[in-house]
Design brief:
The protein is of the alpha+beta class. Helix content is 33%, strand content 16%. The chain is built from 6 helices and 4 strands, in the order H-E-H-H-H-E-H-E-E-H. It starts with 11 loop residues before the first helix and ends in a 7-residue tail after the last helix. The relative contact order is 0.22.
């Protein structure tokens, strides 16, 4: 698997959903009133539900900030997300306050079917809802980009490589 975003893989479907909704509906970050992300119960773990960042380590797991970064930087992910210069931006902190995390509406059904099929009882299906311009925009992402069910293109991998070069110790 390839990780497109510099955060925990469990957040990737939510970021994909935010970016897709913004692109499909031409939503600008400043138009967003609320972002609701519904996924696996893992997203509701205490270390992910905080509203405070103490270090760049936290930005890899704290949902509010990860999904608060997506409207501004989701289209160009890079290790810069983990720098205080980015995650301390006032617009990122304000967007993080608009993020709500819920359990996927079909969580029990999805988990039961996975157990029945002899698979791990976890999933990456994520429903994203953005409220903007007085409307509600909704999408479900069943598998984030980069996995076997949604593999990256060669151009996506090259773009990821180019975005990461400036952060390399090999410069």
């Amino acid at each position: 698997e390839y990780k497109f975003y510099p955060c925990c893989r469990w957040n990737h479907a939510g970021i994909d959903g935010i970016c897709q909704l913004m692109q499909q509906n031409r939503i600008k970050p400043e138009e967003i009133e609320q972002i609701v992300v519904q996924g696996d119960s893992l997203l509701q773990a205490p270390n992910r539900m905080g509203r405070e960042l103490k270090s760049s380590f936290d930005i890899q797991f704290v949902n509010a900030f990860i999904f608060g970064l997506a409207p501004y930087f989701g289209f160009k992910p890079s290790p810069a997300w983990q720098t205080p210069e980015i995650y301390n931006l006032p617009e990122i902190r304000a967007m993080a306050e608009k993020v709500k995390i819920d359990l996927h509406p079909r969580a029990n059904e999805i988990i039961a079917s996975k157990i029945k099929a002899g698979q791990k009882p976890s999933f990456r299906n994520t429903v994203v809802e953005i409220r903007a311009r007085g409307k509600k925009f909704v999408i479900e992402v069943e598998e984030p980009r980069g996995g076997p069910e949604n593999p990256p293109t060669e151009s996506e991998l090259l773009e990821k490589f180019r975005n990461n070069i400036p952060f390399s110790w090999l410069k």
